[in-house]
Amino acid sequence: MGAGAARIGTPGSPPGPALCIMGRMTGGAMTVPTWEAMTGEQRGRWEELLDGVAALLPSGAVCAVVDGGPYPAVVADRLAARLGGRGRPCTRVGGASSLTAERTPGTVTLADGPEWHARPPAGGWDVVIWLRPRRAADEEAERDADIVIDLHDPAWPVIRQVTGRLAGRGEWYIAESRAFFGPRAETWDTRFGDDMPAYAAAVGEAGIPCGATALDAGCGTGRALPALRAAVGPAGTVLGVDITPQMLGVAAATGRAEDAVLLLADARHLPFADAAVDAVFAAGLVPHLLDPAAGLAGLARVTRTGGRLIIFHPTGRAPLAARHGRTLRPDEPLAEATLGPLLAGAGWRLDAYDDPADRFLALATRC
């Protein structure tokens, strides 16, 4: 444990060359690599994640619990050590220790596992950290969690969800987005098949005029760029923005960006003047926005009056949710009853909404 981290009760995980834990996962034992067994890049990923979680914790006295899958003790131990290294007092608890007795100003009291999760301290848990050990989400558990960490690859953890009251703390969003999408960039296109005709069809339905300036916000590997170039013609301009360098690298390597300008930037804070573009294409972007209303308003800011917004995904919402092991909710940003008011509040008018199994497409006009 690092300086500033104390432990009460039963230790969480034994030392050794690897931590082999029997957990609630199909397939039995899973191994979490120790610091010594990981590559420098993997250690850096863990450290970046732990720093991100530490920055998300509120100031003052905090009671937090780590739960989910077979790794909560490992993650809690590493988080406690990282907090101590950052100079924040942290008390690790286990066994029959009393949480309330250790709740002191400025101290993080950190527990782990389902037993602790089920018996919160007086006033409840301030922060619940849920570990996702599979690709599919545990909807109920994650809905009640404050921070969700994807641990299906124990050597490469990624924060995937943060509750609204904590989301504005720290600089976790960019780092975690890059950590998730970066390693997937090289195989992104092969994983999802040849869906570029679907992208082209969506661009075609938007009616982008020749000579226009078109922006692909969150362009990824550039699957929409050729269609956007065809739409605006040689006199137009195509811009591709993404937050992940590896995604832009693939877009350039495939030749899709030959007639486009690629920019490494955050789609939430676009580096363009007001009313700079005539059309915005956003494939898979909206569900990843921390604040969809603010994100859509940002897209509206850079779009001229009468300009077009194309919100697209090559798979409909229902099959996409099933692929990720979850069910659709009526309050999701892309649900028709939610999206219309969201767009209206951000300066758009929803003109068309189509959500069959083989695609999602919503078209809007800048008011």
TrEMBL record:
CDD domains assigned to the protein according to its UniProt record, in alphabetical order: AdoMet_MTases
InterPro entries in UniProt: Methyltransf_11 (IPR013216), SAM-dependent_MTases_sf (IPR029063)
Record bears the keyword Methyltransferase: yes
Gene3D superfamilies per the UniProt record, alphabetical: Vaccinia Virus protein VP39
Pfam families xrefs: Methyltransf_11
Any one GO BP annotation for this protein: methylation
Transmembrane segments: none
GO MF annotation list: S-adenosylmethionine-dependent methyltransferase activity
Alphabetized UniProt keyword annotations: Methyltransferase, Transferase
Keyword Magnesium included in the entry's annotation: no
Methyltransferase type domain ranges (all copies): 215-311
Protein name: Methyltransferase family protein
Taxonomic lineage of the native organism: Bacteria, Bacillati, Actinomycetota, Actinomycetes, Streptosporangiales
